[in-house]
User: Fold these one by one.
Assistant:
Number 1:
Amino acid sequence: NLLLWYDKKSLKEELSSGVLKMLGIDSFLKVPVLKMSGGMKKRLAIGCAISKKPPILILDEPTNDLDIVTLGILEDYLCSFKGCVIVISHDRYFLDKIANRILEIEHKRGTMYNGNYSSYLEQKIKNREIEEKHYQSQQREIARIEAAISDIEKNQNEIALKKDETLAEQK
């Protein structure tokens, strides 16, 4: 899933950017992509994406294969990025540092939460508690309505029996 082709000329021009230099991409530009380590490929892919100065960055598991220094550089860059960043990640510490909104997709439904990952977890727990209370309330109301229906049916049966008895006595 990594970018296996890049334009060395345009990337070299962009290396004057502090972020790309800090990513250390200039140190391995002469290495063939197929011989690069996972971390080198990840830094190159991120560097290529950043060098294009896009309005939207879409990053799938960007922390995989990154060393701690590169991870810190990426976090700082994303926190100051002026566009939209969409990140798919299982790294909750990374999400805590960079996210200000979390979109959860569950049961084919999306729910937006404001705040970082920790805030999302707290809000989700509160929402689940509220949903559980609503569910219990609905169940009590259903039981009350079913009991009322049962009482009405019982009363109608008793009325029908008395009516039948009265008709039988009249004959």
Number 2:
Amino acid sequence: RGWPVYRGSQFSTISCLVFISSLLYAMIKLNLPAFDYKLKKADGKVWIFDGIRKKYVVLTPEEWVRQHFVQYLIHVLSYPKALVKIEGGLHYNQLAKRSDIVVFNRAGNPWMVVECKAPEIKLRQQDAQQVAVYNSTLKASYVVITNGLRHLCFEMATEIKSLPELPAYPA
């Protein structure tokens, strides 16, 4: 039968297709627990509510992964919500960069940095290098790269050590 076409004042056909394609991103099944999310449509885009930043942000495939991963950290692994920061600014070689997720320890120092990719992006060595660049400034103990389907976690000790799972948050 094809795609539904909405007629009338609520949606134009084009904004309807944008809405539907954005919702398809929201339906991508990730290797993370589902959570109750809030979506809205405005300005021809779909927005998702970010409970950390306390505002709606444009829903992209990467944002879908980021929101799921944050919920996983907080609700499954019991990382303290107040110590999670999303899209924090940092400087590397006088360049302004943005880290996707940073989890701080109770002393307020970066403990884990997470780089999120869209689900269709295969995790590559250059993604690990991007997080390593961020971490050279942050000096977090752990680095994670995820596309929502696969999660790679590394302990940044004297030697970089791959971990089979994310660490428990320190007591």
Number 3:
Amino acid sequence: APSTAYNAIDRWIKLGYIETPQKIIREHTTYIWLSCKGIKELELPYAYYLPKVSTIRHLYAVNAIRLHMQSFNISAEWISQRTIRLQSEHRPLPDAYMEVDTIPPTAIQITEQQRLANIALQEEITSIQALAKQYTRIWYFSHKNVTEILHTAVKEIDTKSSKDEKLVDHI
């Protein structure tokens, strides 16, 4: 219930576990973030992090995908980018990966952009190529306006690649 959530937030603010909630994006709900004290209290291995306004839309997209996937009751563990950063020196990092007992980890990559300029498209393709060297499967989520552009670019790269380097086999 909303009142229960608001009571919990009020309690966490008074205890200093979260930063003061902020309304950052007009069409989204208010955001809350763990404070340094909250991270220490929960004994999390992460450094304190207050997201920049420029990254909020991406974090929202990542959380939306995670919540959507959880709605299917998939028996998998979601490993966040912050956790991957602690475990691996490989770069680039996916936004997350999922672990399921019977299959290798699946990288999760998300772009929330509605338009991709040529330079952004090249960055996305370079990222996919690098992730394909680390993961046998990549689930790539994109805005419907750029899905076809990305798919066409991946197919074009694949026509120039050897059979063992096909990106379509990964995503």
